[in-house]
Amino acid sequence: MPTHPDQRYIEGLLYNDGSTVDEIYRKYAGAIRKFIIKNGGSGDDAADIFQEALIDLYNQARHKDLQLTCPFEAFLVLVCKRKWYNLQKKRGLHRVTNSTDEVSQIGEDPFARAEQLALEESRARLFLEQFARLGERCREILKLSLTGEAQEKIAERLSVTYGYLRKKKSECMATLLSYIQAQNS
Amino acid sequence: MDSYDNEWIIRYVDGELSPEEAGQFEAAMRTDTALATEVERYRELKAVLHERLPGDPTLDALKQRTARLNEQFFQQTRIRKAPTLRFLSTVAAAACIIAVIIISWPSETTRKLDQLGETSMIGITERGNQTDTLLQKASTFFNEKQFDKALPILNQAVIADSSSQLALFYRGVAAWHTGDLHVARTSLRQVYDKGSVLQNQAAYYMALTYAGEKNKTLALEWLQKIPATAPEHVKIIELEDFLK
């Protein structure tokens, strides 16, 4: 499926282009605000959802090469709706979805992509939140270990043995995994 | 996932198992979907940490930009004092008075309009000039829902300073509550035409004056003057729904 001309909005976010980001707010903030408020949220909820959705789009463009195949507005609305429904679910509130209408309006592909984006970004956020709960030493070891630098050099820099580094890294990851699993259970 | 814990998963994905151990682990994964799911989760975790732990200055800058724009496009009505500007100072006074006005009107329609017309004023910063002194005095009655008593004082405040948008605005609101629609609309219209920070609120109350008369066309016309990004949107949506 060809990339939509509205890909320029994604590029604007990717390069933090001031005029494009301003344009996004001017054109679409009102509609998202209206949707959230009509569905039981507050102005603050709308602000958070809108901002988070834009950051999610940035992350997906940066790390997953997000390509728009539908108008930006339709995709942004889908992402915001999905985020809002997830938040309501988290708050234990009933949610009403209109998936059939949305699919018929913008097609299955973008709909599935928006769903996937919301899920992936929600998981990424959870991972980073749980990572922040680790002790300072664990965070340092994992950060350095994931840079791709040789483990021997990292061990030297941290003034520990290679064996200790491997063991500690494994323990820290295991702790992080257990934090994440506890959140999902 | 009984036979393998997280450390096994990590060692498998990181390629630290012997060929024999890896083979046994893979055999277990084929029959244990929970184990396979956790392996996938760990792969995703590693990828996310690898991508996102290093600093990203563009992302940080984008977050700052969107935070600023959020303030601009989503902030609720917050009127701040700016001592150098008399007008803004007067508006700051409005932010400091609070009165929740609930009048027991007989019908469901009027009760709803009353709810939609609730006015909050939080305190007052007195600077000592005549208009502010009158506003302070009027606010006492306003807070006690004695609009018939607040109205003449607000009239005096407007006479003392006909450019006071705050005096005009609250005179309009008080007049609306007392049923003096002519004074209400004249005052609110002036505030609207002036284009001050109270413009959208004035348009909203203009809509309410027409909604009370069941003049749906003019009420909606006034609501349409308020930009979609205005912070008054919560009540606007309610009033629109009510009118429709």
Q: What fold name stands as the CATH topology of the largest domain in chain B?
A: Serine Threonine Protein Phosphatase 5, Tetratricopeptide repeat
Helix content of chain A: over 70%
Rounded mean pLDDT score of chain B: 77
Number of separate structural domains of chain B: 2
Which stretches of chain B are poorly predicted, pLDDT < 50 over at least 5 residues?
77-106
| Beta-strand content of chain A | under 5%
Describe this protein's structure.
- The complex is a heterodimer of chains A (185) and B (244).
- Chain A has 185 residues and is mostly helical.
- Chain A contains 9 helices and no strands.
- In chain A, helix 3 packs across helix 4.
- The relative contact order of chain B is 0.07.
- Chain B folds into 2 domains: 6-104, no CATH class; 111-243, Alpha Horseshoe (Serine Threonine Protein Phosphatase 5, Tetratricopeptide repeat).
Compact description:
With 185 residues, chain A is an all-alpha fold. Chain A has 9 helices and no strands. In chain A, 78% of the residues lie in helices and 0% in strands.
